[in-house]
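We were asked to recover a plausible sequence for a given structure. The inputs and outputs are reproduced exactly as logged, with field labels preserved.

PROBLEM: sequence recovery
POSITIONS: 1265
GIVEN STRUCTURE:
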């Protein structure tokens, strides 16, 4: 997907916001505010506008901006001459209200043309007119006028960029955008992706066997600054990440320059990437003036020489990176570059922050636009790597390319469309128009069809159109004939094959050949024998042997596998990389799960689909895709399954009856033709029509065949709402089984009333329409299969160390009716996943399992199996024995029959029981908690996991104490997998868990803290990211006891100067603090961390400003860059603050060099310095920092004090008398000497270590101290 900076690069006069200071643009944003957008997403849209304008020259008058929003009506928010400064524009954007309604794009385009691009409202003669339309839906008011209005706009010289969010049908969007469409229409799936759209999207293309002699010429002048020079060095290493240095294909040298130039190393100095990386790290910063001319001369005369590693016949490449214009020998700079180019050295020139690129243009090889690159910040160099490497390695690549696409019945038409999208996406950057790349396509099922040859089309637009027109020709799978036709009829001179040009074939298939299967691999071998390189892509294959036989060798570089057709898009970069690169991508693909069989089931099936306005047309298309996907394995052609469809909004419409179509192809075509009929939500009438008109003999209902209805809706009825549930009850009373699927519903009461009983087996809920696809397996399973649903599980997560722990472990699993068989399979998966790293084979861990419903069943004892493979097999064989919920008896059996010597319980080994349940006992309920107490009284430690429980009192009574450390809760069985880390951490690790799921509460209720946030507001942060930073502050304080007075908070922000936003005694309630944080303005500028740290220490941690004696002083610094003002003072200022007893947590965002951050943070660094790559990751960081903050606070309270009595939070050496105090406690079961200990665990470690080692009494005593 192109980036928005590419949007604007369609002419060089437009706002390429990096290095385009003199561009004049009159710009109007047209923003969709319809109901389907929702207010949170409308806020993201506004953030996009501000982010887009981040570097626009509004204050200087080059760029003028207006905004119009629309739903049912349009509203001009401000004209292009309303505001003259960026600050005013930003404020005006922030003030735009969300005016929801229908989607009337036509009127908005008309108003933009007739009222905004006018002299009176700021339009300037001779200045380019640009309009950016952002929408999430197709017009549902004046829809016929939308494209004509856009045509009128374009006819008056206004260039339109159209951005669509979540659209499956982009035809209207294509009609709005200027031509060519592929350069002016952009699409993302989520509003949150708008931000990423602004930046250029790079392609990871490298060079397969390319030999390159490469020299970097790096500017080290004073204006660069040392931190930025470090970023420049990082760019060099990042650039070389995939370069084949060790194999000898690429040789590298580096020269740096300021007043003088210095050859750091020649191209024959180092032969391995590791040595080159080390040498780059060692390059010193030699600041001075800017003498580019001498550096270019030295590069040409001393580096590209035989003596220093230059090889004859190998391309000479030079990459110049500079942030300024020469101020020494300036007149010689371009002539020196010309001499270098004249001697065959190809020069790529990269400029950082340049407003005048004339010298840079003169340095770069021609054409300039392909060889000169510009960014605004040194931090953007990293993203530039792909562009330069692409230009360097694949610019002149000639390829003759044929796609061989499987169109067999198993693919399905919707997936075939995804396959065609993959082809177009793959060709996005291919040079078809310039003649370097030629493309042909052949599809196959029972027979093969050449859709077009490599010489049929000469432009990308024509190829794209031809791909769009390819029909779906379903049938069997005859790969052999397709490969033969590709070889004998397509790679021929007559059909466009060029001598001396590489022949590439990409095969995409979802199955193994079932026609001419024996010939498939021999045909591939013949093709490869004639010099055709084959990349083979398989979708959802459990057996890849045929695919491996098709692909060129080595297989691991030329065969790719994904599980879903929707993943093809992501595969594009891997295949294109392999095509242009020596190294194959690592593709981790878990084997596909078994298919759910329903072959012989007879079903009369009706879909009831909500088409109301709130659904939106794109989501209605997803709903139709769900229907087709659901029917993928249904035996329609054989007559077992009959299908009808009714849709509804204000009224209902029977689209087709169950006896209308008899083949799956006809049903699929009919589903595709269903129109979107938006309106209100009248579910009651739809249910009535389904019952009275569809499930009838006349319309295909068969006697003795099960009647199934699947209702899919995104809302509660707003017409005939009182009749909805009674209508469902009548349908169920007539024997119609109803499955109800709700999308994005917070209130499921109506949905529950529609679904058959028990509700938990017949009502399904997802948050997004895009999740419907994944739901197919659950519903189909519930409908007609005894097998578990498809569960795609990623590779197991990083290991939690538990290597030497001895544990006797019993799982107690609830198999009651409410669990359902599919969820019971998920429960069994959880057991296996949990045991993934357990040392069963070595004998450290023993495992037993008991399941229960009305009765309990010991599936196997702890001494039954001794190896993990046997345990896994035994778990797989556990049957689902549904019934009532008798937890009491299961706990009793676990205690009396499983934790016994005879059945594997070992003396001196910790006894652990993990109970997993979805409900409250309904047999022997009064005995449940007493049985748990007896088990715990006999030394069995119980972890209790509840799924979907609103009342956790029984669960709390089962779990060991403290409850918050031993009781875990999730909402869905599918979340069990993520819970594994928390429970396993609690069970046997001394390290804090990885908190990727909602964290266990960190007890910090009574902690007294004086807390100051120091927030970086420099220009590099950007205003949208500064808002995320403020959100982090509020999120961090979510559980802080501000109102009770335990926690006081102050905030200081900084850029060129620092600003105390409020002191610790300014606000006394959390609500006031939140409001104050919201009001903090973004004050951009340079990065002066030193002064901010000084102000924090000298002005904020003061008695008069709220600092309290004997209360811990905590400072949290959040920054995205290295200081560029007073840089030498930054770490000394941090040292002074820490010396005064202020504990500093330092958080860095997107930093490649953390040395300054490390110097700011308290020691040890690894516990007090945190790093994330994106501002959006700050939210997830809250738990880690809060854990570190409160963990230390609880552990060290009253245990270790300085002379002033201030309590430390960081681990520190313990004096002997303190250990004597601790030794007086009861450490039964613990061995070892504690007087030799140096560091005491943090509270996070205790929370997960104490339960296993029996330190509960020690922990209680300590917390009470």
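RECOVERED SEQUENCE:
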């Amino acid at each position: 997907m192109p980036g928005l900076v590419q949007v604007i690069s369609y002419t060089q006069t437009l706002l390429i916001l990096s290095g385009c200071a003199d561009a004049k643009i009159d710009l109007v944003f047209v923003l969709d505010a319809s109901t389907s957008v929702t207010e949170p997403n409308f806020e993201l849209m506004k953030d996009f506008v501000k982010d887009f304008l981040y570097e626009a020259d509004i204050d200087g008058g080059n760029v003028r901006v207006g905004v119009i929003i629309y739903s049912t009506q349009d509203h001009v928010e401000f004209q292009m001459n309303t505001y003259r400064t960026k600050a005013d524009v930003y404020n005006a954007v922030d003030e735009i209200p969300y005016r929801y309604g229908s989607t009337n794009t036509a009127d908005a385009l008309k108003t933009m043309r007739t009222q905004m691009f006018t002299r009176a409202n700021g339009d300037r003669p001779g200045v380019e007119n640009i309009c950016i339309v952002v929408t999430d839906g197709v017009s549902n008011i004046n829809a016929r006028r939308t494209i004509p209005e856009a045509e009128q706009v374009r006819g008056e010289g206004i260039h339109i960029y159209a951005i669509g969010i979540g659209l499956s049908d982009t035809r209207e969007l294509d009609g709005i955008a200027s031509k060519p469409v592929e350069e002016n229409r952009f699409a993302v799936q989520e509003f949150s992706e708008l931000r990423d759209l602004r930046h250029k999207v790079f392609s990871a293309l490298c060079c397969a066997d390319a030999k390159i002699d490469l020299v970097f010429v790096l500017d080290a002048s004073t204006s660069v600054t040392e931190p930025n020079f470090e970023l420049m060095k990082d760019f060099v290493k990042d650039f070389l990440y995939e370069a084949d240095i060790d194999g000898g294909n690429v040789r590298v040298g580096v020269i740096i320059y300021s007043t003088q130039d210095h050859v750091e190393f020649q191209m024959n100095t180092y032969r391995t990437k590791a040595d080159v990386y080390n040498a780059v790290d060692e390059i010193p910063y030699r600041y001075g003036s800017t003498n580019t001319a001498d550096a270019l001369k030295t590069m040409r005369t001393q580096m590209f020489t035989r003596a220093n590693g230059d090889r004859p016949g190998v391309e000479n490449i030079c990459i110049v990176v500079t942030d300024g214009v020469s101020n020494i020998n300036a007149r010689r700079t371009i002539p020196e570059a010309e001499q270098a180019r004249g001697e065959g050295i190809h020069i790529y020139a990269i400029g950082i922050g340049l407003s005048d690129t004339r010298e840079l243009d003169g340095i770069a090889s021609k054409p300039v636009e392909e060889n000169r690159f510009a960014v605004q910040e040194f931090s953007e160099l990293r993203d530039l790597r792909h562009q330069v490497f692409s230009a360097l390695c694949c610019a002149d690549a000639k390829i003759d390319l044929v796609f061989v696409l499987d169109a067999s019945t198993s693919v399905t038409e919707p997936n075939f469309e995804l396959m065609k999208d993959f082809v177009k996406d793959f060709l996005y950057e291919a040079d078809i128009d310039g003649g370097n790349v030629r493309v042909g396509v052949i599809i196959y099922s029972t027979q093969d069809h050449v859709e077009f040859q490599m010489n049929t089309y000469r432009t990308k637009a024509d190829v794209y159109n031809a791909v769009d027109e390819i029909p779906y020709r379903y049938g069997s799978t005859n790969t052999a004939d397709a490969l033969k036709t590709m070889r004998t009829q397509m790679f021929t001179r007559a059909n466009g094959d060029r001598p001396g040009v590489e022949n590439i074939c990409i095969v995409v298939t979802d199955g193994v050949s079932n026609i001419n299967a024996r010939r498939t691999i021999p045909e591939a071998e013949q093709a490869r024998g004639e010099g055709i390189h084959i990349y083979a892509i398989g979708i959802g294959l459990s057996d890849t042997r045929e695919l491996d036989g098709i692909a060129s060798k080595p297989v691991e570089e030329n065969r790719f596998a994904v599980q879903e057709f929707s993943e093809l898009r992501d595969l594009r970069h891997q295949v294109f990389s392999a095509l242009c690169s020596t190294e194959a991508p690592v593709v981790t693909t878990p084997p596909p799960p078994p298919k759910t069989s329903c072959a012989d089931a007879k079903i009369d099936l009706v879909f009831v689909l909500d088409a109301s306005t709130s659904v939106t047309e794109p989501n209605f298309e997803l709903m139709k895709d769900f229907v087709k996907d659901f029917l993928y394995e249904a035996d329609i052609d054989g007559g077992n399954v009959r299908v009808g469809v009714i849709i509804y909004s204000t009224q209902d419409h029977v689209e087709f009856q169950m006896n209308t179509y008899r083949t799956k192809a006809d049903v699929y075509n009919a589903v595709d033709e269903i129109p979107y009929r938006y309106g209100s939500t009248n579910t009651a009438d739809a249910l009535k029509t389904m019952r009275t008109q569809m499930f009838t003999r006349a319309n295909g209902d068969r006697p003795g065949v099960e009647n199934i209805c699947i209702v899919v809706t995104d809302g509660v009825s707003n017409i005939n709402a009182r009749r909805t549930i009674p209508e469902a009850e009548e349908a169920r009373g007539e024997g119609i089984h109803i499955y109800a699927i709700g999308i994005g519903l917070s209130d499921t009461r109506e949905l529950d009333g529609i679904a058959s009983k028990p509700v938990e087996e017949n009502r399904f809920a997802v948050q997004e329409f895009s999740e419907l696809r994944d739901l197919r397996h659950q519903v189909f399973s519930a409908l007609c299969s005894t097998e578990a649903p498809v569960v795609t599980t990623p590779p197991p997560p990083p290991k939690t160390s538990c290597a030497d722990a001895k544990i006797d472990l019993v799982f107690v699993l609830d198999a009651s009716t409410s669990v359902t068989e599919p969820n019971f399979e998920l429960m069994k998966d959880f057991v296996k996943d949990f045991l993934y790293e357990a040392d069963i084979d070595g004998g450290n861990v023993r495992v037993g399992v008991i399941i229960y419903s009305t009765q309990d069943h010991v599936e196997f004892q702890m001494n039954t199996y001794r190896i993990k493979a046997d345990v896994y097999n035994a778990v797989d064989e556990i049957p689902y024995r549904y019934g009532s919920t008798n937890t009491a008896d299961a706990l009793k059996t676990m205690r009396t029959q499983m934790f016994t010597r005879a059945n594997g319980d070992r003396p001196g080994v910790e006894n652990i029981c993990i109970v997993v349940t979805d409900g409250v006992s309904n047999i022997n309920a009064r005995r449940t908690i007493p049985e748990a107490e007896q088990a715990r009284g006999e030394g069995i430690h119980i972890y209790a996991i509840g799924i979907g429980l609103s009342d956790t009192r029984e669960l709390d009574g089962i779990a060991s104490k403290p409850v918050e450390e031993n009781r875990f809760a999730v909402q869905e069985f599918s979340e069990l997998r993520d819970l594994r880390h928390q429970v396993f951490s609690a069970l046997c690790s001394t390290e804090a868990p990885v908190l990727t799921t909602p964290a266990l509460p960190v007890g910090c209720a009574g902690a007294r803290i004086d807390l100051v946030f120091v927030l970086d507001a420099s220009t590099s942060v950007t205003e949208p990211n500064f808002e995320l930073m403020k959100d982090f502050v509020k999120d961090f304080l979510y559980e802080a006891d501000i109102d009770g007075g335990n926690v006081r908070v102050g905030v200081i922000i900084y850029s060129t100067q620092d600003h105390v936003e409020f002191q610790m005694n300014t606000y006394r309630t959390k609500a006031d603090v939140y409001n104050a944080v919201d009001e903090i303005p973004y004050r951009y500028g340079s990065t002066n961390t030193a002064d901010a740290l000084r102000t924090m220490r000298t002005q904020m941690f003061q008695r008069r400003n709220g600092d309290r004696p004997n209360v811990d002083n905590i400072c949290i610094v959040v920054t995205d860059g290295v200081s560029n003002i007073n840089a030498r003072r930054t770490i000394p200022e941090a040292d002074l603050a820490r010396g005064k007893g202020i504990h500093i947590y330092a958080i860095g965002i997107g930093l490649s060099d953390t040395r300054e951050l490390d110097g700011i943070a308290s020691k040890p660094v690894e516990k007090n310095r945190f790093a994330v790559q994106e501002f959006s990751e700050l939210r997830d960081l809250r738990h880690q920092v809060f854990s570190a903050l409160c963990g230390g606070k609880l552990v060290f309270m009253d245990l270790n004090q300085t002379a002033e009595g201030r309590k430390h939070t960081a681990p520190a050496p313990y004096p002997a008398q303190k250990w004597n105090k601790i030794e007086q406690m009861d450490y039964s079961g613990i061995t070892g000497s504690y007087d030799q200990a140096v560091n005491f665990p943090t509270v996070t470690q205790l929370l997960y270590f104490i339960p296993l080692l029996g330190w509960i009494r020690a922990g209680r005593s300590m917390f009470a101290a």
